[in-house]
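In practice, a research group might receive sequence data for several interacting partners and want a quick structural hypothesis before committing to experiments. The following worked case mirrors that situation: the sequences arrive first, and a predicted assembly follows.
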Amino acid sequence: MGYHWNWAVLLASAPSGGVTYLDWLLSGLKLTVTLSLSSWLMALLLGSIMGVLRTVPNRWLSGIATAYVEIFRNIPLLVQLFIWYFVLPELLPSGIGTAFKQLDPMLQQFLSAWICLGFFTSARVCEQVRAGIESLPRGQMNAALALGFTLPQSYRFVLVPMALRLIVPPLTSEFLNIFKNSAVCSTIGLLELAAQGRQLVDYTAQAYESFIAVTLLYVLINVVVMVAMRKVEERTRVPGYMGGK
Amino acid sequence: MYEFDWSSIPGALPFLWQGMRISLEITLTAIGVGILWGTLLALMRLSKLRLLGWFAAAYVNLFRAVPLVMVLLWFFLIVPQLLEKLLGLPSGSDARLSSAIVGFALFESAYYSEIIRAGIQSVPKGQASAAFALGMTYGQTMRLVVLPQAFRNMVPLLLTQAIILFQDTSLVYVSALADFFGAAYKVGDRDGRLVELLLFAGAVYFAICYSASLLVKRFHKGAGA
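A structural hypothesis for the assembly, expressed as tokens:
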């Protein structure tokens, strides 16, 4: 094969002044990690609230939460992203819409990507939280109510803490997914890891090196998250349950 | 306030339908390949031959660690060149589209193989032992006893995965394939009506995926009863 391998290209200086191509990849990695972590926070928070709402004994609230989940689960991520990025600014009251469009383009992309990934993942987290709450014995809720807790208190002090501990393993895979899903955001021009890899190909024509490097970085993220989550799983395991002590 | 103008959609329907056919074609190809190759991977993973087990584990873990967008870019930009060089094809023989579809199918196989592996493991061990005791070979045991039961258990999961896969097909957008989403985007871009076309695409995906998931649920209840 006539391919000319040249790994040193990663250390060559890039056209954007004073940095190497490797720095491009690393800045992409940083953006991928920042975006994923911030979206994950949003998804956990929103997903827990919605998960609780899905189980409360009130038809209106659980109906709203169900609709929420169905909407975010049944539209492809790419379509959601384009709607957040291209459609929403047009539909907002013109003041806010224009203000958004006057932001730094980088910031526009990041905000859209963050909100999109956050909502998308929150629907999945919501389903896990609901499953966790439903897996608890009914006695837990009854005991809390019998002790004089109000319904919100029973959720806050009894059901949700237990449920969140039980669902750490499935949440791990959602957490891994959010890093992978963040690559979709390269389509709106956000310069995260996958986009940087593509840009590197355009500039250096060393396609193999750049793609292999990016792929390895994704594998690295995966490994780091798995190791970290295994630690979390060990700490949050509930004694007496499957896999518990 | 924004003024909607849906007039560019009716005329574009044939083009959009063509895109939808491509989306469905990719979906069906990937489901077919995914289940076949996924079953083989699952069997390798569970086999006593260490080498096969390692290969399947490496394959599945690699594909599950990498974003679909990256896999599609690999198969769109790099694999065709590589094939051209390896097989000595004349350059420019455009294999990029089929390559992207193959990449998509290989990616989804990794996810199918995990579902199928869990399905096989859900069949009680005694079933295989009984089959062996009756004198069946490994192939017969799997084909006639274990896999049929495993697949019955997995049907709801396989269908749910098919819905996810259908949604994933929108990502072939990165490889310039004009699937349904790509077609909608093109029309919207051409007519300056991106807002309407994107909302329309979202609504269509929602209608399809939501009704499919309702069907799966009903089917699941029927099968469970």
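Before designing any experiment, note the following. Chain A has one domain: 20-236. The first helix of chain A runs from residue 21 to 55.
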